[in-house]
Here is the input.
Amino acid sequence: MTSSTATSAPAEGGLFGAADLSQERLFRRNLTFFAAATTCMLAGLVIMLWVRSEPWTTIGHGIGLVGLALGAPMFLIAAKTVLFGRNKLTTEVFITLALIAVVYEQEYWYASWVVFILWLGETLMAWAGRHARNAVEALMKLVPRQARLLGTDGTRMVPVEQVAVGQVVAVHPDERIPVDGVIEHGETAVDESMLTGESVPADHGVGDHVYAGTANLQGIIHVRATVAAEDNAVARIVALMRQAQRAHVPAKRTVDLFLRWFLPLVLLAAAIAGILTGSLERVAAILLVITPCAFTASTPLALIATVGNAARRGLVIKGGSAIEAASRTRVVLLDKTGTLTASTPQLVTIDAFGHTEDEVLRLAAIADKPSTHPLARAINATATHRGLDIPDPQHFEVASGHGVLAVHTGHDLAVGNERFLQRRGLPIPAAVRAQAARREEAGHTVAYVVDSRTVIGLLGFLAQPRPSAAQVIAGLRKLGVRDIVMVTGDRSRPAQAVATQLGIDYRAQATPEAKLEEVQRWKDKGDVVTMIGDGINDATALAAADVGVAMVTPGAEVAALAADIVVHGDHLSRVLAAARLCRRGIRTIQTNILFATGYNIIGLILALAGLISPGTAVLFHAASFISVVLNSALVLTYNPKVPDDTDTTDGPEHRALARAA
Here is the structure.
């Protein structure tokens, strides 16, 4: 049961399967058996403790035998192991022998108790693997199922699978693009964060490539399909996720490694004692006192406590393999935008030419006030923080996706990038161009502010590291993380600016495939790798890493489903809390094993000497289980120390401008 179902689920029987069961069916089956085993165990306990008269005693024995029968899948595995396992002794074989001894001693309730503990562990492990299929399904939903196909007879809606290479589709504002292709007509801004992680929408016009699943923000565009639907960007990411999940083998359980060597010695000792004394009662006492309930429960109970503690802190940990791997992590790869930095850039510099900074900022804020572009929001947030009056413009126009035009009380305003100014025939003085080049060299995204065809200012934007980023990185290093690398789809200069501030390595302009390659490169060296990201572009790397950690805000559900640990909310410090919790959970498991080992060794010595009966052996072993329960409960009280994500000394725009100055 332990070796042939849950532990092999991600590696055998396809992406979602364990043997011939899908992961979902496996979980449902285990949950059904666990519910039935729980019912039998509790009913038998009530009868044993409070109703000791006939016919209830006989009924209790019958319930115990039903609970025992629920262990049939384990008995089948034990039989196959004995017959075909090439002398391999497993936990299933030992527990089956111990249950035979339990039945021989007519301890029927204890038999149902053992089966209950086994199904508890199996159900938890099957639950941990359910998210794989959900991640893929959520990703596929990002691609529209219908497309506006342009033809000689006009526009008609067709299933996206029917759009052939070379055909043209129309995409309206606020719609997702249905195909990979090249723009043949129109200009717009496209939110490509799902692929690149870049928070600033990309400006695209005729001849530019766009990708399925990305969002068209402004103009109507016509896109000629360059690949079929099954080969588009999202389909490639799905294929990579499936490949990564198939190759993602969970860490071996410490308990199984221990029992592999311990159980043969116990069986040998029981056999020798039986031969020398001729007492089956002594053999039964040995098997009962060593029955590995405490060992089997040492892991799931600690995991339940760890997951419960994490949930109170806005963390979702999806399985024991994630906790174990997180405790052994030596390499951490992080996305930049939305992870190390805020999801939207901040206004960090204002260069004024012939005006004051506040005048430039105010006119830019007026021009951009109706806009929903992330840079426009940053401009207005800074102006509001400075207390500037920002009236509505008398006229507003989004100009070809590269900038805005506005009119306000005699001011003909324009705010946009260099390409926008060139298309409008607006001159850029040499001194202004040189200053813009310096800002871009520092990693800034630059916007020009124009009044009556004269450039009056430059605005520089940069995604700044979160206030807690440096402390989180320092905390990870204290936990034993050797290498920390920022892997981002952003341009090299902004990436270098952030990496330099934090003192970490970086890899820029990384596509989802490149992020996956980076994860695999470190894993090939034998390192345990944790990947931390927040977007769809990180999903393949999250699935392939030993531990995937997703920082989730609304709209990032795919990253959450692909990850092993989910951080709800915009809180980088919770990543460090998760790392500390995972290490505490593993230490608790190790302590539980020490408790169980101590009880079992003492009990084994007493049983070998004939000093305890089978009934006493049952009570002795129950004590070891209780110690494991109490020790695991201590995890619920653990409070990991992490830095505060908030910085209330001043607004974010003020801090960004102060740092830049």
Summary: The longest strand covers residues 454-462. Residues 144-231 form a domain with the Calcium-transporting ATPase, cytoplasmic transduction domain A fold (CATH 2.70.150.10). Residues 1-21, 247-252, 647-661 have pLDDT under 50 and may be disordered. Residues 382 and 653 are 6 Å apart (CA to CA).
